[in-house]
Automatic annotation (TrEMBL):
Protein name: Flavin reductase family protein
Pfam families from the UniProt entry: Flavin_Reduct (PF01613)
Keyword line: Oxidoreductase
Keyword Transcription: no
UniProt keyword annotation of Oxidoreductase present: yes
SUPFAM superfamilies, A to Z: FMN-binding split barrel
Domain Flavin reductase like positions: 25-168
């Protein structure tokens, strides 16, 4: 085991500024998702790139929400959320749910899931989730949620966010439905 001596470490490291931190993560490609929650008088949703798989047994995910986000107040009170994984052709949907001050559901086809969370039609995949815990993390809150239903609606290239723009990876999206659901495996 090697040990670094203090003389080998930069003596006065520069602070990690918000601009530096943001620049580092501009180079980190991440899948784009839309997170939704039922609200009164209307549902809420936001675009995120912080989705992570946490556990297989039970199936759990995490995502981060800014406490300053317009959707946070509703999400903080919701016991259920929908997580929608976007395909390469859904940049418009990602932009809609990333835009402040608009009715994000006005032009979107959606329906309530059995648990009440809004499910957006046409996404590559979705997860219905029961919120398990909120963990405060700086100016964000990490939402830990147990996946209660999952569905892959179509295969193809995912929409990713990289270097400040939407992009995709892999071959062109196959628009034909290839439904796989967690319900069909519960026999």
């Amino acid at each position: 085991m090697s040990t670094l001596r203090l003389s080998e470490v930069e003596e006065a490291p520069e602070p990690v500024t918000a601009d530096l931190f943001r620049s580092v993560f501009r180079d980190h490609a991440a899948r784009v998702v839309v997170v939704t929650a039922a609200g009164r008088p209307a549902p809420v949703g936001f675009t995120a790139t912080s989705l992570a798989s946490v556990s297989l047994d039970p199936p759990m995910v995490s995502l981060a929400v800014a406490r300053s986000a317009s959707a946070w107040r509703t999400v903080s009170r919701s016991s259920r959320i929908g997580v929608h994984l976007l395909a390469r052709d859904q940049e418009g949907l990602a932009t809609t749910f990333a835009t402040s001050g608009i009715d994000r559901f006005a032009e979107v086809s959606w329906r309530p899931a059995p648990g009440g969370e809004p499910l957006i039609d046409g996404c590559a995949a979705y997860l219905c989730c029961r919120v398990v815990q909120h963990v405060t993390a700086g100016d964000h809150v990490i939402v830990l949620a147990r996946v209660t239903e999952a569905r892959i609606s179509r295969s193809g290239s995912p929409l990713v966010y990289h270097d400040g723009a939407y992009a995709s990876v892999g071959a062109a999206a196959d628009e034909s439905p290839t439904p796989i659901t967690s319900r069909s495996r519960r026999r």
